[in-house]
Recover the amino acids of this structure.
C-alpha cells in the first residue's frame, strides 16, 4: 500500500470538516467543494493506484464515484430548493 494514501485520506477528512464548520451558512459552496475533493481523490486513485491489488483500487474508485454521484444529487436538491416538510411530534402522532 502506498504510504501517502493515508495522508491524502486524512487531509481530505480534515478539509471536509473545516468546510462544514467554516461554511455552515452556505451549503451550495460546501457541496461544490466536496465535489472538488471527491474528483481530486478519484484522480489520485486512478493515477497513482496506491493499493497492490487491482480489485482494491477499483473498489475505492467505485466508492468515490458513488460518493460523487450522491453529492451531485445533493447539489441538484439544493439548487431546485426541494426542502422537506418539517413536522412536529404532535403532527406525526396525530
Amino acid at each position: 500500500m502506498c504510504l501517502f494514501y493515508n495522508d491524502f485520506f486524512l487531509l481530505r477528512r480534515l478539509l471536509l470538516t473545516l468546510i462544514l464548520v467554516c461554511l455552515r451558512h452556505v451549503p451550495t459552496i460546501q457541496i461544490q467543494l466536496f465535489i472538488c475533493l471527491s474528483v481530486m481523490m478519484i484522480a489520485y486513485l486512478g493515477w497513482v493506484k496506491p493499493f497492490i491489488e487491482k480489485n482494491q483500487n477499483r473498489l475505492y474508485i467505485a466508492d468515490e464515484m458513488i460518493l460523487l454521484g450522491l453529492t451531485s444529487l445533493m447539489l441538484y436538491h439544493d439548487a431546485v430548493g426541494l426542502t422537506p416538510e418539517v413536522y412536529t411530534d404532535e403532527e406525526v402522532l396525530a
Summary: The chain has one domain: 3-79.
